[in-house]
Amino acid sequence: MRGGPGGRRVGGADEEAQRAANAEAPRIPNLFRRIMELFAPHRTRITLTVALVLVGAALTVIPPLLVEQAFDVGLFPPDGGPNLTALAEIVGLMIVIYIVAALVGVWQTYLTATVGNTVMGDLRVTLFTKLQSMELGFFTRTKTGVIQSRLQNDVGGVASVLTNTIQSVLGNTVNVIAALVAMLIINWQLTIVALVLMPFLVIAQRRVGQVRARIATKTQESLSDMTAITQEALSVSGVLLAKSFNRQQAEVDRYDRENRTQIGLQVQQAMSGQWFFALVSIFLSSIPAIVYLVAGWLVTGGSTDITAGAIVAFTTVQSRLLFPLIGLMRVALDLQTSGALFARIFEYLDLKPSIADKPGAVDLQVGHPAIRFDDVTFRYPDAGPETAPTLDRVSFSIEPGQFAAFVGPSGAGKTTISYLIPRFQEASDGRILFGDTDVRDLTQQSLVSRIGVVSQETYLFHASIADNLRYAKPEATLEELEAATRAANIYETIARFPDRFDTIVGERGYRLSGGEKQRIAIARVLLKDPAVLILDEATSALDSISERVVQTALDAAAHGRTTVSIAHRLSTIVNADVIFVLDGGHIVEQGTHAELIAAGGTYESLYRQQMS
């Protein structure tokens, strides 16, 4: 996987090392079988497609045989001049066959396009579903652009294979076999001449396919980089950052470098195998001339009684062998090329979420449970053995309806606690209990349904205020939206907008102020009506006036709920029932505001610094 923690950009040397690591496609066992399993739900349509392919192939064999009859019976019969009656019947039959073959071809194309695109769509949804099930840590380790590339570029890269493979493989295989059978019926000696170099072409085709597969892998890696650059540089935050530091040209140059790499790889991919197909075309196109020469030699030598009609029919059939054979070779190359893309897709499909419901997990039954940490230790999975844990044997208890706050210096482990409670992260050791039940014994859906989170970085969709609010409760009525926004102290602001609840907030809510976004986020949580409310530094990024307004809304939201507040500004939690002071992954103090001030420890020092 590409991308470091937090999606940071890496230097040129690191990028080259990463490219080298990704040059080879991941090794997926039974890859071909798994690709074929994608088509299993569409057996009926595939069976009908196979039947149509067989019918179409059979119809293509008949016209060359009728050509022989047209020459030997209609135009040049042994007993005299042209037999126009027989010739008209033969020509009429040929036209009927062409019409039926065309209709069969249209139906066949519809079926293959339907099956192929449905399989591709199912694959895209399956991959998206898998990504939705992954734990939070996966997304902090991987660039968003890289994930988007797997979902869009890789699945899109195999689209033509999924759409055309059935028709191409079956149709061309049957056509090749039918043409060979017809050639053998007409004259076996000429058939041997026509096929003598075929094994060499197959060997050459395999070598070309291996080269194209390697180029395809590098091309998708480059597309992944371009998608990541686009996502970073053209987001609202990325544009603001570039403009703030006057780095627009640097971003253009970075994109241009990757674009030039992509152009080179696309040219390589387009040209790989072209000389091979040119040689195949020359070889197969030259066979009729060679057939004429060999037929003349056989007739002269008296070793065959071949007729002029047979020679014309044979070259007609042989010419029909050209395109199916080239089509089969192209499909084989496409399959080899797409193998790398399928491997990248299945690599993501095979990901195992590190946080998932265990067998026999039960729903959380307690309406307002107590929350208890019992000797909890947390260490990031990719942290080295010498790295100190983020949390080290932390224990505390929060009673139902209690307002508990966690304070401490940056990096003390406060936000980690807010991730562990809803099980966004998994404790490395110890237990986290809701009531008397370990969170690992609970279903994630029932656990998260009882918890509401308001974070420092509010995320709003590029949609209306109503749509953003209904993300918590899709069936919410307008009256419920109004009640939630009144409770969050944002209704009067919304009422002043010309479109009220239909106002579009812009990407990530950039059309609203920080305080307005935060209060809409609070209203969204209120619609969910959770038993446990987690406030992760929900006011630390706001100015003093906005903070007071939002804090009033938060106080209303916390009423009657168990509230866990991760606080940077200590003025927001002076009324908390219990305050836990974290430092270096340990709880060093706990008590009420008054008790901690009187103790004269870490909390008193932090409070004095902020107040001064």
TrEMBL record:
GO terms for cellular component: plasma membrane. Pfam families: ABC_membrane, ABC_tran. Residues 48-337 form the ABC transmembrane type-1 domain. Signal peptide: none annotated. Residues 1-22 are annotated as: Disordered. Keywords: ATP-binding, Cell inner membrane, Cell membrane, Membrane, Nucleotide-binding, Transmembrane, Transmembrane helix, Transport. It is a multi-pass membrane protein. Residues 371-609 form the ABC transporter domain. Gene3D superfamilies: ABC transporter type 1, transmembrane domain, P-loop containing nucleotide triphosphate hydrolases. CDD domains: ABC_6TM_exporter_like. The chain crosses the membrane at residues 46-66, 86-107, 151-170, 176-204, 275-300. SMART domains: AAA. GO terms for molecular function: ABC-type oligopeptide transporter activity; ATP binding; ATP hydrolysis activity. InterPro entries: AAA+_ATPase, ABC1_TM_dom, ABC1_TM_sf, ABC_transporter-like_ATP-bd, ABC_transporter-like_CS, P-loop_NTPase, Type_1_exporter. Residues 1-10 have a biased composition (Gly residues). One of its GO terms (biological process) is oligopeptide export from mitochondrion. It is found in: Cell inner membrane. Belongs to the ABC transporter superfamily. Siderophore-Fe(3+) uptake transporter (SIUT) (TC 3.A.1.21) family. PANTHER family: ATP-BINDING CASSETTE SUB-FAMILY B MEMBER 10, MITOCHONDRIAL, ATP-DEPENDENT PERMEASE MDL1, MITOCHONDRIAL. This is ATP-binding cassette, subfamily B.
